[in-house]
Amino acid sequence: MNSPQQEEEKKKAKEYEKYVKRKTPAHSLIKNMAAAFVSGGAICVFGQGIMNFCQNAGLDKETSGSWTSLILVFLSVLLTGLNLYPKIAKWGGAGTLVPITGFANSVAAPAIEYQKEGQVFGIGCKIFTIAGPVILYGILTSAALGVIFYFLHMWGIV
Amino acid sequence: MKKQTIGKQSIEFERAPHILGAASIVGKKEGEGPLGKYFDKIGEEDGLFGGKSWEEAESTLQKEAVSMALAKAGLDQQQLRLIYAGDLLAQTIASSFGILGFHTPVYGLYGACSTMGEALSLASMAVAGGYGDYVAAVTSSHFATAEKEFRFPLGYGSQRPLSATWTVTGSGACILGTEGGKARITGITTGKIVDFGFKDSLNMGACMAPAACDTIAANLVDFVRSPQDYDRIITGDLGEIGQKILFDLLKEKGFDIEKQHMDCGMEIFDKETQDTHAGGSGCGCAAATFAACILPRIQKGEWKRVLFVPTGALLSKVSYNEGRSVPGIAQAVVVEHC
Amino acid sequence: MDYINAFWVGGLICALVQILLDKTKMLPGRVMVLLVCSGSVLGSLGLYDKLISFAGAGASVPLLGFGNLLWKGVKKAILEEGVLGIFMGGFTASAVGISAALIFGYLASLIFKPKMKN
What we know:
The complex is a heterotrimer.
Chain A: H1 4-23, H2 29-56, H3 61-81, H4 85-92, H5 94-97, H6 100-113, H7 119-126, H8 131-154
Chain B: E1 5-6, E2 10-12, E3 18-26, H1 28-31, E4 41-42, H2 54-73, E5 82-86, H3 93-99, E6 106-109, H4 115-128, E7 134-141, H5 143-150, E8 166-167, E9 170-177, E10 183-189, H6 204-222, E11 232-235, H7 239-252, E12 261-263, H8 264-268, H9 271-274, E13 280-281, H10 283-299, E14 305-309, E15 311-313, H11 317-321, E16 328-330, E17 332-337
Parallel strand pairs in B: 3-4, 5-6, 5-7, 8-13, 11-12, 11-14
Antiparallel strand pairs in B: 1-2, 2-10, 3-9, 3-10, 7-9, 10-17, 14-17, 15-16
Helix pairs in contact in B: 2-3, 6-7
Chain C: H1 2-24, H2 28-44, H3 48-55, H4 57-60, H5 63-81, H6 83-86, H7 89-111
């Protein structure tokens, strides 16, 4: 149980937060959403183009998907190195964060930034600062689902 | 010696220390801002100031600022008794490596963006107490080191909310002494850490405004002054939102400072053309602005008495990740023409 | 037609995530984790493959698709390898994406220098 004094402080903090929210201007959500829609949609269309090209060249679906990821990741890293990705992301917001290009940007940006701190503790460690959690929790979630699937499959349910 | 404390948390100096010289150095973006022509030195576009890393660049800023301030005060490096230096980086390495070459006794400080207020306060206490004839106060910040320390790598794509501030790349230094110069520090009010439980580190104005209010009100009460007794009350980096909140909070306490108030963060950038959102921030913001355009106007007598109140938001990556609030602090220095 | 579907589905996912970013003040890193985990869950329910067959890259390029890919890898590996597959499938399926990001990211750190924003 919190003491009455702590409760009082919490209440005050809530009130202050509400007051600050009233005083703080915000970007227009609709405008941001539109920018995210357009930039995210455009990246996906580009991906679709690569996919179609690969499939027309006779590759199967899975391999085409891999090539698509590879090329998108390459371009994103390149744009990050040329300092263009952050400029696009400033406008596109979630549109540049959500596609796999956002993941690639989150790997390349710390790698470039922390090169001064050395190969191992600079680039080596920091390259995972943002991407590490994504890989960890992605693997963990899919493995947990795998465990469930394993039993359901064993019992013949799926 | 006469007792010099006044009120609850202020000091009125019996022999007010004088500001003998001050200098500022800033990055290119700051140089292109509205205050551009007042700074002593402006860096190149790469932001490295001849260094190999951002941290080295920030150290160079401090070194340059102190050297230039010494030259302006007409002093030799050997005459400097003490340096009070601070910055925003972990373990304040920008100061350590910036001051290293002076071979002068040093006190390293951390007060987030309020550090210039802290440095000036302590330096003036040292001079007024007879602990040094010539004492320097210097602080710095660098956009790139601060982004690394508190936010994301520069190449990472993200959107900044309108409440966010832009860390100033720059440094300001002041040399204090017992006599000379056209400005002196007649008193100080030491700030308390004030926590309203606010957690949004991308709205630092709102984190710091309660502290600024607390210190300004304490100063007015301790010195038995009204806002009109100051030509200007100048906060460090509250930004637009922080300023609005400060006005509201002070009105609740019965003080109206709208006519006197100025904020370094709002002066240093042009928010229409420079895309900095709420304003500039960092301990280089208040320091460089003070050295470049506040002090000269006091020296000229345009302003007779100014309350300079750098403000700081006390947070680290660790405290943020652990879900703690962002308390604020503000250090007030009374600077008068003489 | 596949381009149109890719555009509006991919765009819509991004626009919805923008609400999350703006309204909850969630940091981008958390949003990315959330997307990948949700993708795995949606995949395991058999929903995400349906979206991909409709929208193509519009569903596979967003990180939700990355999560789905992880799940599909795990499922395939379990069917082939049994228990071992739980520990194998995720990385096998995501190998290209992750390796590409790491390798290109590392190379970028050799070629490019960090630059100031202005």
